Amino acid sequence: MAKAQTIDFIRRRLNTYGDEIQVTSEKTKDVIDITGMSFVMYVGPSKTPDLYTDYLYSITGTIIDAVDGRVEFAPTMEQATQPDGTMYHEVVMTDAVGRTRTVAMGKYTYY
Fold first, then answer.
1. CA within 13 Å, CB half, 16
2. Better-scored residue on pLDDT, 47 or 1
3. 77 phi and psi, to 5 degrees?
4. Where are the domains of the chain?
């Protein structure tokens, strides 16, 4: 079972490098093999959003190392052009049969 980790990101405006997370088991704290999974990060102004309507943009994750549970989210230049301030993110993992789980959430601050 994947744990919804609290991860805060700080990003300089106009930077498009990827933010990386590592998915771990809630029960054992071990890294989860994410082969066959897909990931989307939703970013918006609300700490408790209606996930599918109350966000500014979403970023599709790129798996860096499936066995090590590592996935990266790199915004486009348009997405990285945000005013200074704090927003919030939520990362949703979808498995091969379509089941979803929030695996990370937290602040997403532009400066």
1. 7
2. 47
3. -60, -40
4. 5-110
5-110 CATH = 2.60.40.3350
Beta carbons within 10 angstroms of residue 43's beta carbon: 22
For the CA atoms of 45, 111, 91, 52, the dihedral, rounded to the nearest 10 degrees, stands at 30
Please report, as a single letter, which amino acid is at residue 21.
I
How does pLDDT run across 22-32, given as a tens digit for each residue?
999 888 889 99
Query: Can you list the pairs that 19-22 forms with residues at least 24 positions away whose Cβ atoms lie under 8 Å?
Result: 19/72, 19/73, 19/74, 20/64, 20/70, 20/71, 20/72, 20/73, 21/70, 21/71, 21/73, 21/91, 21/103, 21/104, 22/68, 22/69, 22/70, 22/71
pLDDT digit string (tens) for 48-99? 877 667 899 999 999 999 999 999 999 999 999 999 999 999 999 999 999 9
